[in-house]
Design brief:
- The protein is an alpha/beta fold.
- About 40% of the residues lie in helices and about 20% in strands.
- Helix 6 crosses helix 8 and helix 7 packs across helix 8.
- The relative contact order is 0.09.
Length: about 220
């Protein structure tokens, strides 16, 4: 849900209609009082906040209240202003606004800004753990366990293992591994891959046998029951 706080009914209705038509659920409010009443019942994903509002609280005052309350401090806010000076923009950004729109603004620009802020402020996606036999890799915690034992790996070893576990059964040539793990510009030798595979196998113990050598080609990881 996106809350739009705008005293001009025409603009408010158009913003709410456009957001709803774009697949973004929205609700409008004419002033701070009605906005905070709704906020007490439901937390929005984002607030579009006009600076010039009737009543005791303008947009800047509302923004200060939002940022000063731990329960609402992280709600993304886009400020809107009809003024031509830079003062309101700077004030809003300094107080923690995530973006601003200068009136008059186009509806497509508004939708684009809203989507951009939502993407930028979205919590990181939780990634599923990878499991092959007795080997488990947690990409969120950046940990590896083999047979229930925590294994300490270097960054390159970790990246190699993750690539293999994400692609069980797929054969990677040494050159492909150089390009994927050491990037395409790395001026190394395929022997670099062999050395890292060797140390990775050693650290993984018997789970290291999951990484198979395909003679004349490269390496692959076979899934184990």
């Amino acid at each position: 849900m996106i809350f739009c706080v705008e005293d001009d009914a025409g603009i408010r209705n158009m913003v709410v209609y456009t957001l709803n038509a774009s697949g973004l659920e929205a609700e409008g409010f004419p002033d701070g009082k009605s906005f905070f009443a709704a906020l007490a019942q439901r937390r929005p994903r984002l607030v579009m906040l006009d600076i010039m509002l009737p009543g005791e609280e303008d947009g800047i005052t509302i923004l200060k209240r939002l940022r000063g309350n731990a329960a609402t401090a992280d709600i993304p806010v886009i400020m809107a202003t009809a003024k031509g000076t830079e003062y309101d923009k700077v004030m809003g950004l300094d107080l923690g606004a995530d973006d601003y729109l200068a009136k008059p603004f186009g509806m497509m620009e508004m939708v684009s800004r809203v989507k951009a802020v939502l993407r930028r402020t979205a919590p990181p996606e939780e990634l599923a753990s990878l499991q092959v036999g007795e080997l488990e890799l947690n990409p969120n915690a950046h940990t590896v366990c083999a047979n229930g034992r925590r294994i300490q790996l270097t960054l390159k070893e970790y990246e190699l293992l993750r690539l293999f576990m994400e692609n069980p059964g797929r054969v990677f040539t040494r050159n492909q591994l150089l390009e994927r793990i050491w990037d395409a510009d790395y001026l190394g030798e395929t022997r670099t891959v062999d050395v890292h595979i060797g140390t990775l196998r050693t650290k993984l113990g018997h789970c290291g046998d999951y990484i198979e050598t395909v003679r004349g080609v490269g390496y692959r990881m076979e899934g184990k029951a």
